Amino acid sequence: MITSEITSAARLIKVENGRNARFRVIVLGIALLVLIVLGAIIFTLVDGSMPVFKQLGLSFFTSKEWDPVAGHFGILPAVYGTLVTSFIALIIAVPISFFIAFFLTELCPYRFRATLNAIIELLAGIPSIIYGMWGLFVLAPILADHIQPLLTKWFQHVWLLKDIFAGPPIGIGFLPAALILAIMIIPFITAVMREVFDVVPKTLKEGGYGLGANRWEVTRDIVLPHTKVALTGGVMLGLGRALGETMAVTFMIGNVNTISIGLFDSGNSIASVIANEFAEAHDLHMSALLALGLILFFIAFLVLAVARALIHKVKKS
Length: 317
Fold this sequence. Notes:
Layout: H1 2-56, H2 59-62, E1 66-67, E2 72-73, H3 76-107, H4 110-125, H5 128-155, H6 161-164, H7 174-198, H8 202-210, H9 215-244, H10 247-252, H11 270-277, H12 283-316
Antiparallel strand pairs: 1-2
Helix pairs in contact: 1-12, 3-7, 3-9, 3-11, 4-7, 5-7, 7-9, 8-9, 9-12, 11-12
């Protein structure tokens, strides 16, 4: 009897070990699949970019001229437009997102909180082409008729700002593209900040209130220091979204291959160049577009690496 029970238990353990082994193999395979897909993307971009790197060399990175008909490919204007619009969008979006998250977690009546959270999540799910169309037909006329002339008038005698807020007031350019990007990334950053603020232990906040601090002081002196690591990640998530955004920027940036300090001037971005020209490209032109994709991938990777370094530094401090 005892021998039979031991044999049965051993059989059950063997079956369970087999199931665990198969589950481990499946999970490992799925994890490796992600790496394989990532490797395939990198290989495709690098392999496709080689012809333009070999033919144009360093001038591909330093030239400002982009003329596919003449075979001239310089990426400086596209890189400049991508970075300028993304960082302006971040400057606009981060404080707005912070105050929205602060309102939702600290000031908003509880019965409205779920509705407002749902609206923010809905905004995050709207396709970018909808934002682009809204920006072109609604935001651009408002900017052209009211905002841009006013900014030009205000800063026309201020050193440097008169050059920054210069350009034709047509509602299209670096600043309009940055504004539409800011509107797009605000829901993402707000959602992250709201979730982060919600997980702060109540005892910490109650301790601050017990010492006589108001809601703003508790958020500034207790919530922000406690959540700065996660907040950094949320901001970088927004920046990553802005860097890779395509359709909305294509609608709003003007698609002109120039570098200008004037925020009202038209420009270009890496994603908009690829979106506009990929269907008609071939040979060296196609290689140049794949190289742009590779550079955009590298910039996004660099942003994530910097974010990880910042988070690691904050954790150590």
